[in-house]
């Protein structure tokens, strides 16, 4: 029996595949390399000494996706594949809704056809929108401020409605807070296609002098130092959370939304200073105006993940800063060496 990992060559996907292989799961990856690189597959084999099956395809390619299920005995799916750039989604809404939502519907149709009803979905804390007050709990109403966020909200509803219509489905919706950091080896990590949208890859590209300085989006928020507060979680903790969610999905039915966060909020300046201290590097920055759509404070109540999945984050902010830098220092051009 195999685990199908869609988007398994991506940042979080590749870290999760490493954990799956290290725990003796059989793995099948589908990825279209729209936000990843073939080199990742070699690095996964190098790190685990294990092999896996790979298909280069986009989920919209239903016929070839059916072929994956024909050729492999899939027992569950971990679904990462999707576009994820908030800003880009505002200028390309159709592409985001088609790729993310239609792609997921095609995946679910094929899963249903082959009677595979266990799925772990890569959702996001972005579904908590602008109107909830941290710490965020899973029972709070969901909303979004951009098409990317809305694709996550809509897909959560699709999975919940599916589990109501057919009680054999067991979708686990993992709401990631802010994934940063990299595998201890520094051989896999976050490799954005263009100028990074997210904080940590921007910092590491300043540190490796690919970018000149960090722009901090606003220091006039109602927070201790005025900069935005987020719940940063080590990508390896996040990956391990997926194995706990997979185990839960395989042994239960019904839809469950679960926060994957530390429950600890850090400001932008906290992260900059932690990075500088952990790596003995100065990060030049400039305070600029707020970024539209940003919330002031967002962090998880991680209780449900602990009670339901028996999972909690273990890595410190220092670990996250140290491993982010190790990855970037050893791979200044990412996977495009
Ligand atoms: C973090 C903090 C910024 C960049 C988004 C998505 C979420 C997930 C992660 C996809 C904020 C500040 C950032 C910069 C800055 N996306 N910042 N300068 O916005 O919390 O979450 O990314 O998986 O779904 O919503 O993450 O890293 O962009 O921002 O000052 O150059 O850093 O204002 O306070 P965010 P982020």
Automatic annotation (TrEMBL):
Keywords: Carbohydrate metabolism, Isomerase, NAD
Gene Ontology MF term list: UDP-glucose 4-epimerase activity
Top-level EC class: isomerase
Cofactor: NAD(+)
Entry keyword NAD: yes
Catalysed conversion reaction: UDP-alpha-D-glucose = UDP-alpha-D-galactose
Any single Pfam family the record assigns to this protein: GDP_Man_Dehyd
E.C. designation(s): 5.1.3.2
GO cellular component: cytosol
A biological process term (GO) from this entry: galactose metabolic process
Pathways per UniProt: Carbohydrate metabolism; galactose metabolism
Known partners and oligomeric status: Homodimer.
PANTHER family: UDP-GLUCOSE 4-EPIMERASE
Family per similarity comment: Belongs to the NAD(P)-dependent epimerase/dehydratase family.
Designated name of the protein: UDP-glucose 4-epimerase
């Amino acid at each position: 029996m195999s685990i199908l990992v869609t988007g398994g060559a991506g940042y979080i996907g590749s870290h999760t595949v490493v954990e799956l292989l290290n725990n003796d799961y059989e793995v099948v990856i589908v990825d279209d390399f729209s936000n990843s690189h073939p080199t990742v597959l070699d690095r996964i084999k190098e790190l685990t000494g294990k092999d896996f099956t790979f298909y280069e395809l986009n989920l919209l390619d239903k016929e070839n996706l059916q072929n994956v299920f024909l050729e492999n005995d899939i027992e569950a799916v971990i679904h990462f594949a999707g576009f994820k750039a908030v800003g880009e989604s505002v200028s390309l809404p159709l592409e985001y809704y088609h790729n993310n939502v239609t792609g997921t519907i095609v995946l679910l149709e094929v899963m249903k056809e082959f009677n595979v009803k266990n799925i772990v979905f890569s959702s996001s804390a972005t579904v908590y929108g602008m109107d909830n007050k941290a710490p965020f709990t899973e029972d709070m109403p969901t909303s979004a401020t951009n098409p990317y966020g809305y694709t996550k909200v809509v897909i959560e509803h699709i999975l919940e409605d599916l589990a109501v219509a057919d009680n054999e489905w067991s979708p686990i919706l993992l709401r990631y807070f802010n994934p940063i950091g990299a595998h201890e080896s520094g051989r896999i990590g976050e490799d954005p296609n263009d100028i990074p949208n997210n904080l940590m890859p921007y910092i590491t590209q300043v540190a490796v002098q690919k970018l000149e300085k960090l722009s901090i989006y606003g220091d006039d928020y109602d927070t201790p130092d005025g900069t935005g507060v987020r719940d940063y979680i080590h990508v390896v903790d996040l990956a391990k959370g997926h194995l706990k969610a997979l185990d839960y999905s395989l042994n239960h039915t019904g839809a469950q939304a679960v926060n994957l966060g530390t429950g600890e909020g850090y400001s932008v300046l906290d992260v900059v200073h932690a990075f500088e201290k952990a790596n003995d590097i100065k990060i030049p920055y400039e305070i600029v105006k707020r970024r539209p759509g940003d919330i002031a404070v967002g962090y998880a109540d991680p209780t449900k993940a602990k009670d339901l999945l028996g999972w909690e984050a273990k890595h410190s902010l220092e670990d996250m800063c140290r491993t982010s830098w190790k990855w970037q220092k050893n791979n200044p051009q990412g996977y495009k060496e």
